[in-house]
User: Which sequence fits this backbone?
């Protein structure tokens, strides 16, 4: 299983972090150990003092492929959920200043959280999927697939130029603006098309 992540796929988010809007998808990976197993608690990592949440639409790959044509990319995923790409922002900023890779800030154990999967037939329009993310019952992020710079199909086509896609892989498609700090005691909730698919307490 591979966890693909896309950076800066919403214009507003790129700007809120002071980054340029990318000319092609920004791809990074998390290892399998980054995935928080279902029903396990999430603990605030001891190595950071600035833990940020980033809520995203996530695709589940259902078919093996490489060099996938954008026209046929919709055949390679069968479900969508919300996920949290947790980031140790203080560590990431330090690594970026030094021109170093960010794995320590993005790919640590349990840094990827997935919600409940919804099959594609539960969505009326994949180009208009709305979602919201709440911290302690306050709406902090909201997004829509129609606001992504690169669509689901474009992402699959681009990723598959460089990496084989395999059944069970997941793609975090990028976060909208509104990312912020998560602290111990916070309750996080993700709503996908009016259904709660993700609940997480930070311990």
Assistant:
């Amino acid at each position: 299983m591979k966890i693909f992540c896309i950076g800066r796929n919403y214009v507003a988010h790129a700007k809120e972090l002071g980054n340029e809007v990318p000319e092609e998808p920004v791809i990074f990976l998390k290892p399998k150990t980054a995935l928080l197993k279902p029903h396990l608690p999430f603990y605030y990592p001891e190595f950071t003092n600035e833990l940020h949440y980033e809520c995203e639409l996530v695709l589940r790959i259902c078919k093996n492929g490489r060099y996938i044509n954008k026209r046929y990319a919709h055949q390679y995923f069968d479900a969508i959920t919300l996920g949290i790409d947790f980031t140790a922002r203080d560590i990431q900023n330090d690594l970026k200043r030094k021109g170093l890779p960010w794995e320590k800030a993005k790919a640590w154990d349990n840094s990827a959280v997935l919600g409940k999967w919804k099959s594609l037939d539960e969505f009326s329009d994949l180009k208009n999927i709305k979602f919201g993310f709440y911290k302690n019952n306050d709406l902090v992020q909201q997004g829509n697939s129609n606001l992504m710079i690169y669509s689901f199909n474009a992402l699959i086509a681009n990723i598959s130029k460089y990496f084989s896609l395999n059944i069970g892989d997941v793609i975090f498609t990028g976060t909208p603006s509104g990312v912020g700090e998560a602290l111990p005691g916070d309750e996080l909730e993700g709503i996908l098309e009016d259904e709660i698919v993700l609940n997480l307490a930070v311990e």
